[in-house]
Write a structure and sequence with these properties.
This protein is mainly α. It has helices spanning about 1-5, 30-35, 50-60, 70-75, 90-100, 115-125, 130-140, 140-145, 150-165, and strands at about 45, 70. The chain is built from nine helices and two strands.
Length: about 170
C-alpha cells in the first residue's frame, strides 16, 4: 500500500522503516524488549482490543516511548478500530466478497458498530481475516487502482503518523 501511495504522488511509509509483524498487541512487549534496546521501535496496533494493556505496561516500564505508539483508532478517529478499518466499508466488502464468494452490500452492515470485522461477523460469523488480505495481495494492481479516496486518505494518514515518529 505504501509503495502504491508513493507511486500515486501521496506520502507512504518512509523507506527506512522495516515492518515486523508481531501477531497481535499482546506480543508487542516481547518484541519491544528484544529489539527496543538496539533499535528505535514504533508500534502500530489495533485500538480498543485485547492486548493493548500490555503495550501500555511497556510504555509505563520505559520499554516503549508513548509517542512511538500508533493506534488505528487515532488515525481514523474511532475508539475501536482494526487495520481493516483503514479501508472504507465498500472497499473492504469488495475484498471480503471476493475472498468468500459473497455479495454483501454496505447497506447489509449494521450501523452503530465501529469495526468492520465485527459488523461482518454479525452477518456471517467469525472469519479468517487473512483471506480478504490475501485477495488484495493476489490482485494488487487491479484492487489498488479501484480503492476509494477515503481508503487512500486513511492509509496516507497512517503513513504520515508513522513517519512522524522517526
Amino acid at each position: 500500500m505504501s509503495r502504491f501511495l508513493r507511486e500515486s504522488g501521496r506520502e507512504g511509509i518512509d523507506a527506512s522503516w522495516r515492518v515486523l509483524p508481531a501477531g497481535g498487541a499482546s506480543n508487542v512487549p516481547a518484541f519491544v524488549t528484544l529489539l527496543g534496546a538496539k533499535l528505535s521501535v514504533t508500534v502500530l496496533v489495533d485500538s480498543g482490543t485485547e492486548g493493548l494493556g500490555r503495550v501500555h505496561a511497556a510504555i509505563e516500564s520505559g520499554k516503549l516511548r508513548s509517542d512511538r505508539l500508533v493506534t488505528i483508532g487515532e488515525v481514523i478517529g474511532s475508539r475501536h478500530a482494526d487495520i481493516e478499518d483503514l479501508f472504507s466499508p465498500g472497499d473492504y466488502l469488495t475484498l471480503y466478497n471476493a475472498a468468500y464468494g459473497k455479495t454483501h452490500k454496505v447497506t447489509d452492515l449494521q450501523s452503530g458498530i465501529d469495526r468492520i470485522v465485527k459488523r461482518l461477523e454479525q452477518i456471517d460469523g467469525k472469519f479468517d481475516h487473512w483471506l480478504p488480505a490475501q485477495e488484495l495481495l493476489r490482485s494488487t494492481d487491479k484492487r489498488l487502482r479501484g480503492l476509494s479516496a477515503t481508503t487512500l486518505d486513511n492509509f496516507e494518514n497512517l503513513a504520515r503518523r508513522i513517519n512522524r515518529t522517526l
